[in-house]
Design brief:
Layout (H helix, E strand, L loop, with lengths): L2 H30 L1 H22 L2 H10 L5 H27 L4 H27 L2 H25 L4 H5 L1
Length: 167
């Protein structure tokens, strides 16, 4: 596939993901009001912030070392697994400091959401080493499309309890 086609495909797929989150946010505001929209945006930002912190710059390092041959894919996957497991207590400590009164379910779900974000961020980077860019684009956009589906479900049910954002 030509570079121009790859770039257009990247633009289209990743743009679709960005559009999905924008649509989700706009739908929340229009259907359930700005307070719910703000709560969604707040939880989404917290999860993304803690996940970015918990990745510790590892995606770029893994990409470099696997691409240069200094690290096998199998060894990189062990690093991904360890960092994902480390994200659980990091996120739980964060949740305890920010949402101590929210209950154990909220703390556990926040930790799981952050760990999933960490695993996703690292694994999608490894796709660039071994797979075609199309798979990277699909895997990049997939969580954003899943967020839209989750928001559509929340709107359909009419229950925007904070714990739903974590699920």
């Amino acid at each position: 596939m030509s570079l121009k086609r790859q770039l257009l495909l990247s633009f289209g797929l990743q743009g679709l993901g960005a559009a999905a989150v924008l649509l989700a946010t706009l739908l929340l505001g229009a259907r359930l009001g700005p307070e719910v929209q703000g709560g969604f945006s707040h939880w989404k930002a917290e999860i993304e912030f803690v996940a970015a912190f918990a990745m510790l710059g590892l995606p770029q390092a893994l990409f470099f070392h696997v691409k240069s041959g200094g690290l096998s894919t199998r060894a990189a996957l062990r690093w991904v697994r360890r960092c994902t497991l480390l994200a659980l207590p990091v996120a739980a400590l964060y949740a305890l400091s920010r949402h101590a009164g929210a209950g154990a379910a909220t703390i556990v779900l926040l930790a799981l959401a952050v760990a999933a974000g960490v695993a996703h961020g690292q694994l999608r980077t490894l796709l660039l080493v071994r797979a075609r860019t199309e798979w990277f684009n699909v895997i990049t956009a997939l969580p954003q499309l899943l967020v839209l589906l989750g928001v559509l479900q929340v709107i359909a049910v009419g229950d925007a309890a904070p714990i739903r954002w974590l699920v």
